[in-house]
Structures are given as C-alpha cells and as structure tokens.
Design brief:
Elements: E1 2-6, H1 9-26, E2 31-34, H2 41-54, E3 62-65, E4 67-69, H3 80-87, E5 99-100, H4 109-122, E6 128-131, E7 153-156, H5 159-165, E8 178-181, H6 184-188, E9 192-197, H7 203-211, E10 229-234, H8 244-252
Parallel strand pairs: 1-10, 2-3, 2-6, 3-5, 6-9, 9-10
Antiparallel strand pairs: 4-8, 7-8
This protein binds 2-amino-2-deoxy-6-O-phosphono-alpha-D-glucopyranose.
2-amino-2-deoxy-6-O-phosphono-alpha-D-glucopyranose binds near residues 35, 133, 161 and 165.
Length: about 260
C-alpha cells in the first residue's frame, strides 16, 4: 500500500485525476471502476476539465460503478445514476452503452447481480478502481461483516451509513434500506486501486485500513492484500496514522521512475 498525504483535498484529487488520465491516454479502451459520494467529486471535476481543455478522450472507455440504491429510479436526484450523470457523464464523451451501474429497479436482483459480474468479466476486468471510504470502513456498500470474498449482491445498509447519507434525502426514512454493491472479491480483482479519504471524520477508519489488522468488521482493511493500491489523503484524514512521517519520507524520496 502506498500512502500519499497531501496538504488538502484538491492536491489529492489532482493526483488521482492524473492516475486516471495517464491510464486513459495510454489505454484508450480502459475499464474504469467508479465511485459515488462527496469524496471523488473534485476528481471528477478535474477529469471533466481535462476533457474540455486538454481533449482527454473517454469515447473508448468502459465504466462500472460500485453500487446503487435499490428502489430509486435513474431520474431520482438521490440515485447514484443521477449523481454520476451530473458530476461526470454529462460532461465527457463516454459512450452511454459502455456506462454501467447496478440496476436498483430490477425485479430480479440476483440475476441483475450475476449479469453485472458477467459484464465486468466480458469487458476484461477493471483496470483502475477509485474508492471512497465509509466512516465505518466500508468500500462500495460492503458494510462491516461483509464477506471479504463477496461478489456483487444486495446488501442492507447500516444505520450509520443511512444517517451519513441522509443529507442527500429529505428525511432519514427516505434513505433506502437496501442497495446493490460490487462485492469485496469483485473490487479486489481490479488491477489498480486508488482509495481517497478526506477530513478528520475519516481519520479513524483510515488508521484501521492502513495500519490495523485485516478484518471483515472494517472491510477496506482487505486492501492491504492488494498488490497495487494507493491511498490518497489530506492532512486531516492522516492525523491518526502512527507511521505518518514515514509515509511522507517515502513520498519525498520516491525514485523518479516511480513517479507519474
Ligand atoms: C457511500 C458510498 C461509498 C462512499 C461512502 C463515503 O456509502 N456507497 O462508495 O465511499 O459513501 O461517502 P463520502 O465520500 O460522501 O464520504
């Protein structure tokens, strides 16, 4: 795990954008794993800027989003499909038929989940997955106690997650209880992973993910087993890390050939 600590969210998001744009330029048919939540918003804004001003071309890319609520239509402003259209898809030239989110309106959820896994495989697997981090250490919507080998499936959201996400709804009662999420096993098959976490609110989970033992009770800790993960933090999210100075030393002394 590489841990990079930036002065602020902007610096970390610019770095994440450069990982994405490098991949897309080198591999125009790249398969992207995308996330929702407030954390990747600046990353998406920078990708939109690079598309508009520098010609970053999404026309050959395929994307798979991590998750979607069950029971929300695409046009519902709280749905993840709606969110992704607003922050990214409406502003870049990604082809509609290559954009994938789990279908939370399906009346056969197990079949939908199986189909999602098949589509990921048929696309050749995910080249680069961006992840945010839930306050309880979840990735996608894989809540604590999720199987570390899980595949795309329905999950029941915890009270904490529903409270965290209530800000996108009028009342907490409106926050769906269920979602479809890529599994942890699915996420772990991505060839490269970028985890973003910002703000003091995430500091405890960040410490568990980077320095704690691997446990299904903090699902993101499994990322310690992935061969290519970079964790991008702002100073506030890094405050609880024991080895913070060491991570900074590693970054400063990184050989040129390892830099992007
Ligand atoms: C939701 C999403 C996660 C996201 C998390 C953190 O639960 N399903 O993918 O990482 O929220 O959200 P935020 O980035 O808003 O802190």
């Amino acid at each position: 795990m590489e841990v990079l600590i930036f002065d602020n969210e902007t610096g970390a998001s610019q770095y994440a954008a450069s990982v994405f744009s490098k991949l897309i330029r080198e591999r125009p048919g790249a398969v992207l794993g995308l996330a929702t939540g407030s954390t990747p918003c600046l990353l998406y804004a920078e990708l939109c800027r690079q598309h508009a001003e520098e010609g970053l071309d999404f026309s050959g890319t395929t994307s798979f989003n991590l998750d979607e609520y069950v029971g929300l239509e695409d046009k519902n402003p709280a749905s993840y499909r709606y969110f992704m259209q607003q922050v990214l898809f409406d502003h870049v030239n990604a082809r509609a038929e290559r954009i994938h989110l789990p279908n939370g309106m399906s009346n056969d959820i197990p079949a939908t989940c199986e189909d999602y896994e098949k589509r990921i495989s048929a696309a050749g697997g995910i080249d680069l997955q961006v992840l945010g981090l839930g306050g309880d250490g979840h990735i996608g919507f894989n809540e604590p106690s999720s199987s570390l080998a899980s595949r795309t499936r329905i999950k029941t959201l915890t009270r904490e997650t529903r409270q965290d996400n209530a800000r996108f709804f009028n009342t907490i009662e409106e926050v769906p209880r269920h979602c479809i999420t890529m599994g942890i096993g699915t996420i772990m098959e991505a060839r490269q992973i970028v985890l973003l976490a910002f703000g003091e609110r995430k500091a405890k989970a960040v410490r568990q993910v980077v320095e704690g033992p691997i446990t299904a009770m903090v699902p993101a800790t499994i990322l310690q087993m992935h061969p290519s993960v970079v964790v991008l933090l702002d100073e506030a999210a890094a405050t609880s890390l024991d080895q913070r100075d060491y991570y900074k030393e590693v970054a400063v002394n990184k050989p040129d050939w390892q830099r992007i």
